[in-house]
Amino acid sequence: CPEPQSGGKKGGGKGFSGGAGFGGGGYGAPMDVDADTKLRKRIGWLNKDGGFENQLNYQKVAEAAAGVDIQSVMEVLKDLEENKAKVKDPTAYTSAALRKRGLGGAGVRRTIMKPKH
User: Fold this and answer.
1) Confidence class for position 19, pLDDT limits 50, 70, 90
2) CB 3.0-4.6 Å disulfide test: which of 10, 28, 47, 92 passes with 21?
3) Is 106 helix (H, G, I), strand (E, B) or coil?
4) What pLDDT, in 10s, does the model give residues 77-108?
5) How far is CA 92 from the centre of its chain?
């Protein structure tokens, strides 16, 4: 019998393969539970202790993180923390940075084809 497709890791390493597939945006692979937990904890810390006073929206950041590996997501959040004084909208700043690192806008871009007559 094949094993169920759970979030288990082979080899016990902490690495993530390719994209963690965050969010409910319909992009990327199914959400990695460990990556989601890390993202939730980091955003919670930034909102509470990091000085962002609940301005960072988890759901929007998670959607933007679809297809981005967890290490890159954490780098973007670290960059946000370091630039806190300059950032007016932390959710927009983080989401834009994640989209640049992720699917390159492929999940957002739409091609409109006109019918040939």
Assistant:
1) very low
2) 28
3) coil
4) 999 999 999 999 999 999 999 999 886 544 44
5) 13
Q: How far apart are the first and last CA of the chain?
A: 53
Predicted confidence at residue 113, as pLDDT, reads: 52
Tokens 């902490």 label which residue? 14
Contact 61, 91 (CB under 8 A): yes
Strands (E) in the chain, as ranges, are none
Report d(CA 91, CA 7) in Å as an integer: 27
Q: For residues 19 and 31, is the Cβ–Cβ distance under 8 A?
A: no
Residue type for 86, please?
Answer: K
Task: Give the helix ranges, DSSP H, for the chain.
Answer: 33-48, 58-64, 70-82, 90-101
